[in-house]
């Protein structure tokens, strides 16, 4: 029983994706664990709709969304999908140009994307166009810093921001 | 009587300091009389920015952070992280290391489900007795962890390439005792709660999730299986040699809070089955591959997933060949499971919202990271 349940090997998924997305300007390769599609932001919606709705792909489970700071290349967003029906996994990488971190939201296709996108937005500063409620999730509501940017320093001064100016209430 | 008493919407805060929220977590519920008409989750009170801190530490130094995400199942979190690093760096774990990992992960599932069931019974109004019974049994497992790793909750026992220490001679008799004493306890708990009229009245038909709702919200673990989808990563994408062990995937039929409770009870029986098999066939040999202390995995990215007691726990790592990860991301199962709470509570009563929250089995340390 466990044999039929096992996920499809990565090279088979890569072959399948190459057949489906050969015409679009996307690059298909593989990471250490999954097949990967490198996709520009303007074609992202088309790719995800195809991934979700095509019968041979049928990626119905959104696993994870991660925002990554790629320094001078811009901000990247990684989407990981899985298909219950076809037992296959795929990762979609969207690299946004520096200064223009806009990606269309996929909350209408995958309701689970809602909190993932909010987290990616607050942590690295990506902007998901069409998200119903893009406010901070884990950080405080009025905080406007993006702590997972590489430019954001991990320093004591940052942790004590706003506190160091005030005089402590107790003297020992 | 409906229509005679006029009521208007009113906002109440359940939490952040409230015994039913299982940590520092807030539900901003809009209620009309006794009915919840809108709910908003507010979280982040326990945010410790682990993902940022991990970018400045070596791969081995990050293991203790994973203990502190889901503090009720630190072994599972250690395992998920170590698997991700091993996939990234292409490290093989010896068979004994894998068997020890399986035993520890399953013991952790037992301990975590004890807590989940006890706290859930507390939320339904069965005050203190079930939770104390569950704690009595959980204590035996925490003792095993203490003997093996030196700590009860934050074990920090798994290492990249295997586990930190070999098993002690006391380990086997202690696990045999758990195997002997747990089945009567599970039967007792089932007899106490699952046929109890009040418990059934509080949980059956409360917080119903259809299979479509569960997959759309990307739920995993007992939440998904309670809705009738037999999905378990231990079967679907086996790791640590889970394919050698014989066990079943329990599922529910109605997708309500009661089914999630029953699924957890049944999972405990299956875990005992796995531990029995792993302990009987425990291979000899090394328990760890030697890995350099300042590990520098090749450039690339890896996503490793395990079936933690709460669902799909994923660790996503990016390496730039440096001694510390370029990006370290956790996919916490109860964070995603919690996002379905709004759908389950709106339309029900405030008292039911507490029961539904208990049936999700959240750990706030994992949600906020």
TrEMBL record, chain A:
It catalyses: a quinone + NADH + 5 H(+)(in) = a quinol + NAD(+) + 4 H(+)(out). The keyword tRNA processing does not apply. The lineage of its organism: Bacteria, Bacillati, Chloroflexota, Tepidiformia, Tepidiformales. This is NADH-quinone oxidoreductase. It holds the Pfam family Complex1_30kDa. Belongs to the complex I 30 kDa subunit family. Residues 38-157 form the NADH:ubiquinone oxidoreductase 30kDa subunit domain. NDH-1 shuttles electrons from NADH, via FMN and iron-sulfur (Fe-S) centers, to quinones in the respiratory chain. It comes from Tepidiforma flava. Its EC number is 7.1.1.-. InterPro entries: NADH_quin_OxRdtase_su_C/D-like, NADH_UbQ_OxRdtase_30kDa_su, NADH_UbQ_OxRdtase_CS. Keywords: NAD, Quinone, Translocase, Transport. It is an enzyme of class 7 (translocase).
TrEMBL record, chain B:
The keyword Membrane applies. InterPro entries: NADH_Q_OxRdtase_suD, NDH1_su_D/H, NiFe-Hase_large. Residues 123-369 form the NADH-quinone oxidoreductase subunit D domain. Coiled coil: none annotated. NDH-1 shuttles electrons from NADH, via FMN and iron-sulfur (Fe-S) centers, to quinones in the respiratory chain. The immediate electron acceptor for the enzyme in this species is believed to be ubiquinone. Couples the redox reaction to proton translocation (for every two electrons transferred, four hydrogen ions are translocated across the cytoplasmic membrane), and thus conserves the redox energy in a proton gradient. It comes from the Bacteria. Its EC number is 7.1.1.-. Belongs to the complex I 49 kDa subunit family. NDH-1 is composed of 14 different subunits. Subunits NuoB, C, D, E, F, and G constitute the peripheral sector of the complex. SUPFAM superfamilies: HydB/Nqo4-like. NCBIfam families: PRK06075.1 (NF004739). It catalyses: a quinone + NADH + 5 H(+)(in) = a quinol + NAD(+) + 4 H(+)(out). It is a peripheral membrane protein. The keyword Flavoprotein does not apply. This is NADH-quinone oxidoreductase subunit D. Its main location: membrane. It comes from Tepidiforma flava. It is found in: Cell membrane. Keywords: Cell membrane, Membrane, NAD, Quinone, Translocase, Transport, Ubiquinone. HAMAP family: NDH1_NuoD.
